[in-house]
Design a protein that fits this description.
It holds the Pfam family Pyridox_ox_2. Keywords: Acyltransferase, Transferase. This is Bifunctional pyridoxamine 5'-phosphate oxidase family protein/GNAT family N-acetyltransferase. Residues 1-20 are annotated as: Disordered. By secondary structure, the chain is of the alpha+beta class. The chain folds into two domains: 20-193, Electron Transport, Fmn-binding Protein, Chain A (Pnp Oxidase, Chain A, Roll), CATH 2.30.110.10; 213-412, Gcn5-related N-acetyltransferase (GNAT) (Aminopeptidase). The protein has nine helices and 18 strands. The chain has helices at residues 27-36, 73-77, 124-137, 151-155, 243-250, 267-282, 331-346, 361-369, 402-412; strands spanning 23-24, 40-46, 49-55, 57-60, 63-69, 84-98, 106-120, 157-163, 166-172, 190-193, 228-229, 233-237, 286-293, 299-309, 314-322, 351-357, 373-383, 389-398. The strands form two sheets. Strands 1, 2, 3, 4, 5, 6, 7, 8, 9 and 10 form a ten-stranded antiparallel beta sheet that branches. The chain has an eight-stranded mixed beta sheet with strand order 11-12-13-14-15-16-18-17, sandwiched between helices. A hairpin with a 2-residue loop joins strand 4 and strand 5. Helix 5 packs across helix 6 and helix 7 runs antiparallel to helix 9. The protein is elongated.
């Protein structure tokens, strides 16, 4: 059979006996699901008894590779020249269908069923290529971002190869198919869509490498913590690995005065603050950066975008805390200059806002020195960590104010000019 043909050839094992409208043989549809899905089950028999195992899979051309252990029964059975007769099912559940009648409850799904004889991969080059493809499936670029297997590890891993010849694609899409006489029944009917979503990546203990791009959420530029570099400070995406540095720089209680979180009593508390910031970033609510001293490379604080509204071209700057040793050094001024430059010149913002506790006069003076205008006092705006209500002073800067404000900020950062 020509592998370039758009469909797989029907066989007695792939021909539907019922619901024939839900089965197809399109190569493109089969390839798409095999490449997308991670749920794979391998079926085979042992001594006349059926077996079903979940496993990892990857498609390379018209071969499906299945991952296993060298000591597992299907892999042992596949060592012979005759191979192992198998049936593989790869499925994506796309929705639950609620009918007015119980009989017409169903599911929307896409499923590939492949029959054939699998053989153990013994050629080392093919085996390494299959292992690389398996790793690349979980993240494009991961193969070069991880250590390849040693000869010993490769020998302890088994890979089955199944030629894709007897393949069918089964699908169910659409809405409810109730009987006409049931349409008047007083029951809700419809489809509950389902989709697989990733959570925020959780680094292993001791990891200091930045989160790779293939694990980052697909965010707009407004929600992306792009690295920003100045003469005094560098801003880089906040990560759990920054906790120890942040704790060393900000353990002074005065640093945490008037902030919306309680002062941490140790690295564990600060780790919780960082996790909350990263969780908010994953939800698209914040863009958190860590601030580094550009000369010493020390972690000295953190700052964020928040209230991000690309449609209205507006963003807030806040959640800022900075080690006391770097107060009045130009570090905070340049960090804000970098964030304002990105907001107005790269993102096209029309409005940038700040919020601060009405009791925090030092913060209000700092925001005013940036060139922002005091707009309002938001009464009972939020709860403080001690449970009392906070009145919030709101400041804003518009795009037409930015050129003058930028010139003043750059002037403040010149050597010999007091930062204030």
């Amino acid at each position: 059979m020509d592998e370039r043909t758009p469909t797989y050839e029907r066989t007695s094992r792939t021909t539907a006996t019922r619901d024939r409208g839900r089965i197809g043989y399109q190569r493109a549809a089969a390839h798409e699901l095999l490449d997308e899905a991670h749920h794979c089950h391998l079926g085979f028999t042992v001594d006349g008894e059926p077996r079903l195992l979940p496993t990892l899979h990857v498609r390379v051309g018209e071969t499906l590779y299945l991952h296993g252990s060298t000591g597992s029964r299907p892999l042992l059975a596949a060592r012979g020249d005759t191979g192992l007769p198998v049936c593989v099912a790869v499925t994506s559940l796309d929705g639950l269908v609620y009918g007015r009648s119980q009989f017409h409850h169903s599911a929307n799904y896409r499923s590939v069923i492949a029959h054939g004889t699998a053989h153990l991969v013994t050629d080392e080059a093919e085996k390494r290529a299959a292992m690389t493809a398996l790793v690349e499936k979980v993240g494009r670029g991961r193969a070069t971002d991880s250590r390849p297997p040693t000869r010993k590890e490769l020998a302890e891993t088994a890979v089955l190869a199944l030629p894709l010849r007897e393949v069918s694609v089964r699908t169910r899409t659409g809405g409810v198919v109730d009987e006409p006489e049931d349409h008047a029944l007083p029951h809700w009917a419809g489809v509950l869509p389902l989709r697989l979503v990733t959570g925020r990546p959780e680094p292993d203990a001791g990891v200091t490498a930045p989160l790779p791009d293939y694990l980052r959420a697909d965010l707009s530029p407004w929600h992306t913590p792009a690295p920003l570099t100045g003469e005094h400070v560098r801003l880089e995406p906040l990560a759990e690995s920054h906790v120890d540095g942040l704790w060393a720089a900000t353990r002074d209680l005065e640093v945490w005065s008037f902030l919306s979180v309680p002062a941490p009593t140790g690295p564990a508390d600060l780790a919780g603050i960082v996790r909350n910031a990263l969780d908010a970033a994953w939800r698209g609510e914040r863009v958190p950066w860590v601030i580094r001293d550009a000369r010493t490379d020390e972690v000295i604080g953190s700052t964020s975008y928040y209230e991000i509204n690309p449609a209205h071209r507006a963003v807030g700057i806040g959640h800022t805390f900075l080690g006391r040793r770097w107060w009045r050094t130009g570090a905070n001024t340049e960090a804000k200059l970098l964030l304002l430059t990105r907001a107005f010149e790269e993102l096209g913002a029309e409005r940038v806002v700040w919020h601060t506790d009405i009791r925090n006069e030092r913060s209000q003076r700092a925001i005013e020195r940036l060139g922002a205008t005091r707009e309002a006092v938001l009464r009972r705006h939020r709860l403080r960590p001690d449970g009392s209500w906070r009145d919030t002073v709101q400041y804003a800067m518009f795009a037409e104010q930015w050129p003058e404000a930028q010139a003043e900020l750059r002037k403040k950062l010149r050597p010999g000019v007091p930062v204030g």
